[in-house]
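User: I'm curious whether this sequence folds into something compact or stays loose and floppy. Could you predict its structure so I can see for myself?
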Amino acid sequence: MARSKVMAFVIVDKNAWNAKEMEWYKIHSDDKKSYRDLVQYVEVLQWTNLGTRCSLEVELETFMFCRIFVVIGGCINRFLRCRPILGVNTTFLKSKFRGTLMVATAVNREGGIINV
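Assistant: Here's the prediction. I'll summarize afterward.
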C-alpha cells in the first residue's frame, strides 16, 4: 500500500491579492491605457455608425478622464419616432473609479421600451 504525502501551503493574504491583481491585469489590461484608448474608440464609433454623436471630456491640466457621452445614430432615429415619455435612471459606481452611470429609456409607438 502506497502512502501519500500530505503537503500544506500557507498563502499570505497579500500574496493572494497580488496574484489576483496580476491575473486581472492580464485579462483587463491597464485602466490608464483603457482611458487613453477612449479617444480612438470615439473616432471609430463615429466613423462606423452614421449619425453617432460622442462627447469626451478630460481635465486640461492632467488629461484625466471626466465623462463621455455617446448616442448611436440609430438610437437618435428611433427616439424621433417615440412617444414624448423619457425615463432617466442613475446608479453610483463604487469600484476603483467612482462616478455615476446614467441611462435613459423611452417608449416607442408600439408600447415597447427602448434605450435612448
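Summary: The longest helix spans residues 13-28. The radius of gyration is 23 Å.
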